[in-house]
Amino acid sequence: MTRVAVDFGTSNTVLAHFDEATGQAKTVEIPDITRAITYRLDPESEAETVHVVPSLIYYGEQETLIGNQVLTSDLLRDRNTLRWVKRRIALGVTKRSRTPQGHRSPAEAGEDFLRLLLSYISSDFSFAADEFTFTVPVEAFEDFEDWLRRVTESLGIARVRVIDEATSCILGYQGAVKPEDRFMVFDFGSGTLDVATVRVDTQAQGDRRAIQLGQAGRDLGGMDIDTWIFDEFCTRTQMDERSRRTLEPQILAEAERVKVRLSDPVTARTELRVTTSEGDSQLELAYQSDCQRCDPGSQLEPPDASTSCLGCLLRDRVFIESIRETVDRAFENAAIKAGVRRDDISRVFVTGGTSLIPGVRRYLQEAFGSRLGIENPFDAVVRGACQGIVVPILQHDYAIESFNRSTRDYEFKPLFRVGTSYPTPANAVRFWARGSYNGMTRIGIKIFEVSQMKRRSLDVSLVDWEGALRDTSQVNTENHYICLNRESLTFIIADPPVDLDRDEKRFLCSFTVDGQRRLLVTVSDQLNDRELLREHPVVRL
What we know:
Mean pLDDT: 84
CATH class of the largest domain: Alpha Beta
Structural class: alpha+beta
Radius of gyration: 25 Å
Number of strands: 29
CATH architecture of the largest domain: 2-Layer Sandwich
Strand content: 25-35%
Helix content: 10-25%
Shape: globular
CATH superfamily of the largest domain: ATPase, nucleotide binding domain
Distance between the termini: 30 Å
């Protein structure tokens, strides 16, 4: 049996397999599908090369192309090319895009992409006999994992594991570990920033097992930088709205190239050039990595009217402040949950191409110094996924929507916290269901998954996110959430109907999570001395 790992990313997807003979993980190169990314970590080091699959899918009249096929066919700017699919799936975006092959939702496009990608390696690896591990972001909702499992089932992959990207990163970087070691994983890709503190249980049976202690996420990534460069370029070149729409794919592609070029420590300046829709002229703007205004240690002078500064652009967007706040929140969560503080961290491991941005590198170096590890930013996750096993724990907070009669407002009443191992003990959580008004005959149990990722503010919206907010709650919160059982609510039948004064402690609800991650509820009616529900499955968490 061969262990294969797939790191499905917003901008790039990486595959690897574990070579039993050498005891090492090797990335998979697929002719015409993968492309080589060259990067360096400092000016004196040799350039490193890693093979990735651009997360792109093109729907043509007669063919469907993915990865590097899209780039070599010069179809990146084509309106039938879909990109950033993973991020849209993770955020729950359901808006469908029109293609020559019919309308496609992000989930459908992602399934098509993975199906085609894995078909290219089906002759080298066995769907029936080999083990496939897929990585998911720390802050991805559980239905993203369910979507992945449905895709793998449709492909006939018999042995499937899912592991979070933070744990995979540690296993990809770290060799032997000590029981007292505590790590932080800084995962900054194209779609999201995920920060997690983790320890590895060296006494676990079988393979290494990593346990998350605290995490935080933010809806922020390299694609935001591309969009900010796009906006600034259009403004500086006084582009009209029609030209913006027409040239958007071309400008975004060039913006990404500028970002990547300025992430190379030997490159201080580059240009963004765009050919107009008429093809008879070019628009151009020079960019430099930083200057003395945004980085006092920079050797570059503040730019003139013909040049833009990436560092200043990020400063104006409070980019580094947002990163710092997310890291601090991850440490706060770890301190509350496990008593782990910043000084307890042995190493800080970095993954994701956005971590190579000069300002980000500078912040990480200043914050963590010699504890910083950034040797494999593009493939550490997929390498680690070939060998890691994660303890079965819940990845999010789960809560029930409840009306607080004293405050006259709705609130999330916690059920199970992130990091809870399952199966849980019987009747692990208990509380009274009271109803919200006299005469109620049915009390709905509405379960929410609440992420620690803060919702994106409207002023940095990237695209039309119509359809993203599929489920709503009357709770006032700044965090992402999703209702897990909107279509199949579990109801407590009140017979006789609810009397608020009488029924303060009438319906006793006991919750537990079984080994299949199902939330079970037992409900007793104390007024009638009878059991209404016994370990009834409410929803799969």
